[in-house]
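Translate sequence into structure tokens.
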Amino acid sequence: QENYLFLVHHEIRTSVDIAIISENMEEKKKEIAEEKSCIFKERARMKLLFDIAVELKELSEMESCYLRGEMLFEEEHKRYGELSEKLKKEGYSVEQLEMFKLHYHNRIAEIREKETAVRREERIAKRLLEELMPAETEKQHLREENRKAEREKQPVL
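Result follows.
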């Protein structure tokens, strides 16, 4: 059924169509990898700010106690003030950073779903090609094994 749905979804009529779809999956994988890389880089640039927001959240209870007059938390109050100033200088609030963090989390989840779908489609396409052209697939498999064997024979520099 998975094969049938794949064929219908991509309107495949010949084995050449399957090969084209398989090649397109390689391109899609590259695009998704680039997209994923960009998101991870963006998120990494925000890491320091995310860490500040987490620390502020951890210190918030102690800050409340200090503001109610408990001098025991004076050091935490000073740290809270320093971190708040850093965030203010950068132009962000804790709430905004939490929203950004959620945004990155959701985008990464979407990208992983795309990756999974593309891998599944690629797997189906390869399986169909193997079923339609077993002799050609066997030759290709042998060529790949020969290449691997040749690489293993090469000295490592």
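Note: The first helix runs from residue 2 to 9.
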